[in-house]
Structure formats: C-alpha cells, structure tokens
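Exercise: predict the fold of this chain.
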Amino acid sequence: MNQKYARQIMRRQEPEKFGDYTFVTGKVKYLKEVQSLHSQLFRVPMLNWLVWLYRFRSPELVSLVLDKENKVVGYECFMLNEGEIEHHILHSLYVGVHPSLQGQGIATALRRWSIASYDFGNLNALSTVADMNDIRALRSAQKAGYGIEKQALKPPGHYLVRHLTIAR
C-alpha cells in the first residue's frame, strides 16, 4: 500500500542550507547511515518493511540532514497510514538528530523544510504523533507548525497535524 501511494507523492527536491548542514530528500545510498543513527537514537532497529519501503521510495518519504562531509546527522521518515490516505495525509513516523547536535533547532528546521517540500502538490496535510512523555518531540512539532488535533491511543500521545496551504 505505501509503495503504491508513495509513487504518487509530489515533492520539491531542492536542497537547503542550515548553518553547516544541508537538508536534502532521501537517497538510497544514505539508508544504512539512517538505520545506524536510528538504532543509536531509539535503541531498536528500523522495522524491516520500512527499510524495504525506503529502499525504493527514499526521495518521496525521507528527509535528511547532511554535515559538511555529507554524513547523515539527522533524518525524518514518512509513511502512509491506511486511515489517512483518503484524506491525502502523509505521516511523519520518525525524526532523529545525532545526540551531539540535539538542542540546536535542527529537528525543528528539518520539519519545516519537509513541510515546505510537500506544500505545493497533492497532499492536504502532514501528521505525527508525539508520545505523552516526549516533550521535546511535541515542542519541535509545534514550533514547525503542527497543532494538536486529538489524543492518540496507540501509542499514548498527541496526534498533531500540519495542514498544508496549497492542497488539492
């Protein structure tokens, strides 16, 4: 399902500088680095079906932060939830920044860049869930323009949505 709908997602591809870092759309050549950083941050490997999906649809579903040496220091991974597809909503599943760079606004800037890259085409909104105990994730999403729409039950948290300005 994700593979079929991901093919249809329209997204701008222009990179953007943020201090010493560059935001770009995903490329399969960076997938191993994303997986490694994900394991370091979340202490679990990325789900196999997501790795498979991102292997084929990274440009549509992954945003990256690269340092001066073109190493991945941050990422945002998206997917399509079955209940959101009919509403043309793309779900931000993971946002991660290398531990040594956290607290510098990189995650919020990456979220804003991702929003701008999707805000021109065939999506109505982006969504995410911030765990009830993860204040940093909640604040980062809110600073990027997401608003709490409801409480999510699985996992317990806040369901946030960022409506796009130029939707269908």
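Check your answer against the key: The helical segments are 2-6, 31-42, 48-61, 82-85, 106-118, 135-143.
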